[in-house]
Design brief:
The protein is α/β, with parallel strands linked by helices. The protein has helices at about 1-20, 20-30, 35-45, 85-95, 105-120, 135-140, 170-175, 195-200, 240-245; strands spanning about 60-65, 120-125, 145-150, 165, 180-185, 205-210, 250, 270-275.
Length: about 280
């Protein structure tokens, strides 16, 4: 799915917009790793009515949807609102090899939600951090109740940030601090790969997954999300979602997000908080 969308962008739309909007893209590529909504608005010359309001923090935790849902909704997503036309925004993210834009207000929102869900003494570990824009953006808020570490094995060659430790997922989890509430965060886990089983084996208090979900291209749709339509032969008789079997529950927290592949008609990204169930 991800490959086909990338091919469509590369072969049809991107060449046209690269030529017709090169000055806008040059300006966009100079934006900081966590641009604000106002910076995005200025860069893409948006009219005031197109600038989304500061995202509100939702206090409602929504359970993982039932399998029968399609998850292709018609709700407006801000990937189509930040730019004059959605394709230019996608091209901006494509040029930086970014799947999710961790803009300033999103960084602040997710940090508030981490505190709400996991408490005041959190050790946050970003794995598969790439350039580190997510974890370092959170770290730069300098919250006294939150310790942040970022890691990536650089197998995709995306990280030159010295604050991102060169560790794979399992190596990063060896460094957990047991004096804090350990939480792992991942933005756009690679397709067909499930890292969450490592998190649960380490008995972390929770983990946060950002990106496509349920039937998308982030993680393994059965092992990560528990979508029964994607069970393999060896899992055919299994009825309980893997994370539920390990004693975790999942909630979706609504926040305004910007994904490389979002359009106004296709909501393809979300933020899910997984937390250990209380015993009894």
């Amino acid at each position: 799915m991800s490959f086909l969308r990338k091919q469509y962008l590369t072969c049809t739309t991107l060449p046209f917009y690269t030529a017709s909007n090169s000055s806008i893209l040059k300006k966009a590529l100079k934006l900081p790793p966590n641009p604000s909504l106002s910076q995005l608005s200025s860069t893409f010359s948006l009219s005031p009515k197109k600038v989304p309001k500061n995202p509100s923090i939702s206090s409602l935790l929504k359970p993982l949807p039932a399998p029968k849902s399609s998850y292709l909704t018609s709700e407006l997503t801000h990937a189509g609102s930040y730019v004059s036309f959605p394709w230019l925004g996608m091209l901006y993210l494509e040029s930086l090899n970014i799947y999710e834009l961790h803009y300033e207000e999103f960084i602040k929102d997710i940090t508030v939600n981490i505190k709400k869900v996991y408490g005041r003494n959190v050790g946050l570990y970003e794995v598969g951090a790439g350039s580190g824009s997510l974890g370092c953006g959170i770290k730069n808020l300098n919250k006294p109740w939150l310790k942040v570490r970022c890691s990536d094995d650089n197998s995709w060659g995306l990280s030159s940030n010295p604050l991102v430790e060169r560790l794979n997922v399992e190596q990063a989890l060896e460094g957990l601090d047991h004096d804090v509430t350990n939480v792992v965060i991942v933005s756009w886990m690679p397709q067909g790969v499930d890292w969450t089983k490592y998190f649960r084996r380490k008995n972390v208090e929770g983990y946060i997954l950002i990106g496509e979900y349920w039937d998308g291209c982030c993680g393994d749709n059965w092992e990560t999300w528990g979508n029964p339509d994607f069970k393999t032969f060896k899992d055919d008789g299994e009825e309980i979602k893997p994370y539920e079997k390990d004693g975790y529950e999942a909630f979706k927290i609504e926040m305004d997000q910007v994904s490389r592949y979002c359009t106004v008609n296709d909501r393809r990204t979300g933020t899910w908080f997984f937390k250990k169930k209380k015993e009894g």
